[in-house]
């Protein structure tokens, strides 16, 4: 009975949690968008039943249209004029500038940021922690470290089992041991506390095999690092 219950829980829990999260997001989007939809454009005004997700769909269409219009000359002029007005408001301009910078950085780096997983020695030598690679150090931080001859990379170190919180750490590139697992597999490993490990090898490795040595040791040696033998 216990084994059957646990097997059923493994099958049902992911499905139930996924449906609950999806439904919660849809309802949250509808609660924000639907109050601003004119009655003549609301599908529920022509039907006798509620249409879940209509607000989310309308919001996505509206954002897409705004993005399309913002690419032409007239749209860019309007956006620039609106930003110039916002920049004159003391408190609002700071919030707007920060939020815009975050979105621009995330969207510009979306092809690489947080899609690679690695290991760093933390919190002390000989102890390894899983991190997500964010991007190369930029701005003043990169300038300071480049003057010292160090190539720094910003990584995100999340705790277990809540990967949304964590620490931003700048690590020398040669001290990061890169992994083949995807960001999704890394998140699963963190959330499960190490219980759900990704399949390995997921794909053939291009690195030569090292007989009698773990693959982590081979990578560490490739980066001129020393790992104590088991």
TrEMBL record:
Q: Where are the transmembrane segments?
A: 5-26, 46-69
InterPro entries reported in the protein's UniProt record? COV1-like (IPR007462)
State the superkingdom: Bacteria
Q: Name one Pfam family in it.
A: DUF502
Keyword set includes Membrane:
yes
Listed A to Z, the keywords are:
Membrane, Transmembrane, Transmembrane helix
Question: What span is annotated as the signal peptide, if there is one?
Answer: none
PANTHER family on file: COV-LIKE PROTEIN 1 (PTHR31876), PROTEIN LIKE COV 2 (PTHR31876:SF26)
Q: What is this protein called?
A: DUF502 domain-containing protein
């Amino acid at each position: 009975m216990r084994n059957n219950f646990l097997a059923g829980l493994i099958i049902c829990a992911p499905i139930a949690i996924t449906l609950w999260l999806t439904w919660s997001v849809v309802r949250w989007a509808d609660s924000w968008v639907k109050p601003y939809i004119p009655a003549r454009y609301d599908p529920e005004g022509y039907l006798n039943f509620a249409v879940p997700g209509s607000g989310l769909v309308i919001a996505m269409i509206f954002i897409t249209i705004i993005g399309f219009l913002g690419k032409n000359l007239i749209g860019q002029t309007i956006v620039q004029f609106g930003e110039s007005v916002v920049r004159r408001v003391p408190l609002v301009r700071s919030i707007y500038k920060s939020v815009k910078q975050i979105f621009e950085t995330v969207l510009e780096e979306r092809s690489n940021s947080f899609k690679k997983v690695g290991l760093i020695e933390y919190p002390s030598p000989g102890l390894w922690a899983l991190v997500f690679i964010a991007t190369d150090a930029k701005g003043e931080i990169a300038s300071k470290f480049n003057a010292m001859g160090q190539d720094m990379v910003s990584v995100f170190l999340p705790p277990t089992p809540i990967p949304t919180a964590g620490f931003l750490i700048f690590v020398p590139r040669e001290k990061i041991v890169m992994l083949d697992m995807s960001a999704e597999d890394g998140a699963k490993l963190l959330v499960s506390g190490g219980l759900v490990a990704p399949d390995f090898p997921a794909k053939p490795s291009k690195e030569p095999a090292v007989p009698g040595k773990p693959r982590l040791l081979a990578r560490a040696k490739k980066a001129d690092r020393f790992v104590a033998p088991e």
